[in-house]
Amino acid sequence: MLALKIGIYGGTFSPPHLGHLAAARAAAKRLELDRVLFIPAAIPPHKALPEGTPSGEHRTAMTEIMAQTLEVESGIPAGVSDMELKRSGKSYTAHTLAQLREEYPEAELWFLMGTDMFLTLHQWYDPASILATAKICALARNAGEGADSLEGQKRRLEETFGAEIVTMTVPDLVDISSSEIRALLAEGGGREYLLSPVYGWILRHGLYGTHADLKHLDLPDLRACSWSMVHQKRVPHIRGCEEEAARLALRWGENETEARRAGILHDCTKYLELEPQLELCRRYGVELDELERVAVKLLHSKTGASIARYVYGENDRVCSAICWHTTAKENMTTLEKILYVADYIEPNRDFEGVERLRKLAYEDLDRALLLGVETTIQEMKDRRLPIHRKTLLARDWLRSRGVRTEEEGHV
Length: 411
Ligand code: DGI
Ligand code: FE
Ligand code: FE
Fold this sequence. Notes:
Bound molecules: 2'-deoxyguanosine-5'-diphosphate, fe (iii) ion
Number of domains: 3
Shape: elongated
Oligomer: single chain
Number of strands: 6
Strand order of the largest sheet: 3-2-1-4-5-6
Radius of gyration: 25 Å
CATH topology of the largest domain: Hypothetical protein af1432
CATH class of the largest domain: Mainly Alpha
CATH architecture of the largest domain: Orthogonal Bundle
Largest sheet: 6 strands, parallel
Strand content: 5-15%
Helix content: 40-55%
């Protein structure tokens, strides 16, 4: 069996930026890595961290967003290890690699690094052990530049330590450093060098001297914040839902911006476990019925609405659309109907009957809503799950107003 190839990418990741992602992506492809592991450093031996450096938790969370993004786009499993942050004292690569070697005795370990670090590698702590444990991939920012010193260092390390070294140029790599990005962030710029959700994480927590007013975010910043709250694999759904809600708003004469804001935020609390969901309900005074207290899937619409109101300052119409997007209810407004239906039919959804529902949504919103509600009721029955009483009330309300789904309409 071939050894598992693991790429190890250490750094301060303060913040992780598009250059890091491009480098990891290029190395993964070129070296045919089976996994990528990002390891945020505690205190790098070669430099003291600048004042105001976010905590290890913040840097881990932002690096996790980058790892999820890499995994979603490339299909290569990627994760973040807190082994250096957990270790007390300085982080030495030699120790990190020794620990990884213990965890993965058979794996082919590839240590990824930028050329500036590569050129000083012989001065690091215990280079012999580093180079005996892992192969090195040195990633240059632009072709040609410093090629001679790179080649020289490669030969020197190969001769002295019997190291295995690959040097490569990362295509289209934006030439910017984390410290330059930090300076831009403090002046209100920098987002073009970051993944949107990483930028959103920075805004939400006011890192690097940003002072965003979360209650008055424009659409791009609201997206960044919302996407930073969820697993990155959900972002395509959230984007799809926003766009579908915007299209439906145009079709049915509703406010497009409100439809977008509701779509952007509708699933922002989707990944919270039951306990943190209940904690938010207590904090924001959300009353729950018996089913909601145990069915965690039903809580994210309630807590999402509270976050929309109290964190992002959204209005009643937007919050109420978010609040009822999972169960629906009786007496729904057009915006509430739009978000419910958009969530059901956005382009990433794929289930039997979705095409019919998509068509119906633009012909008769109420019939699409009823079909959605009845589909959910049937699904709950099939899965032997309790049906929320609001879901049943929504159906009865629509039926009492003469709304019928297609087949029944012909009977
Ligand atoms: O958040 P999404 O996945 O985009 O969609 P959603 O907000 O409609 O949530 C769907 C989940 O909610 C799904 O796991 C089933 C659950 N759900 C929806 N209606 C009911 C329900 N669960 C129960 N027990 N009863 C319901 O009436
Ligand atoms: Fe949802
Ligand atoms: Fe959703």
